[in-house]
Amino acid sequence: MSYQAQQRIKRLLDVSIALVLLILTAPVLAAAVLLIRVQLGGPVFFVQERTGRWQRPFRIIKLRTMTDERDTNGELLPDGVRCRGVGRLLRKLSVDELPQLVNVLRGDLSLVGPRPLLPRYDPWYKERERIRFDVRPGITGLAQVGGRNGVPWDERLGYDVEYVTSWSLRLDLVILARTVGKVLRGSGVATDPAADMLDLDKERQLSWVRS
């Protein structure tokens, strides 16, 4: 089967699975929205700009899981402090990720692909790492099922390169199956990613200064 034919099947699977999941999880989403409204107030959704395919920006949608608590200087408190109660529960169960299925239907995301990152990281990718922009970003990916929290960015982005260069429908199905397993076990969820690893721009700045 040609690469183009496999890509068409991938898109068909993305839309079909995303639509079915949105229908099946509608009661869960409704309950989550109510809990967020009661405990955290509005807004219920967290919307943030990310860099997508061909480096085009798009707005990713998630359920809000953190408060807006700040310190005496007006700076936001660490994610681990602001994410608690219902927010921590939603992250542990990965329920906060469900609204991204709307991004899949819109064509911003695929179910599987390199995770979309912040636009401020765009200048900091190495040339080979930019291959990640040749495909749609994903809700899950090889880095999420193959790596672990806190791995260096070189390794994490290396998974993205490996995914793009060795992509097949079979690989997508393997990643999806492993993702389901991780979700059911509640493993690999970081409440405060910044506590485990530096942001890409900060890590690269630091490594370049050292070199």
Automatic annotation (TrEMBL):
GO molecular function: phosphotransferase activity, for other substituted phosphate groups
A Pfam family that the UniProt record links to this protein: Bac_transf
The Bacterial sugar transferase domain, residue ranges: 10-184
Taxonomic superkingdom: Bacteria
Keywords: Membrane, Transferase, Transmembrane, Transmembrane helix
Family: Belongs to the bacterial sugar transferase family.
PANTHER family: COLANIC BIOSYNTHESIS UDP-GLUCOSE LIPID CARRIER TRANSFERASE, UNDECAPRENYL-PHOSPHATE GALACTOSE PHOSPHOTRANSFERASE
Protein known as: Sugar transferase involved in LPS biosynthesis (Colanic, teichoic acid)
Origin species: Micromonospora avicenniae
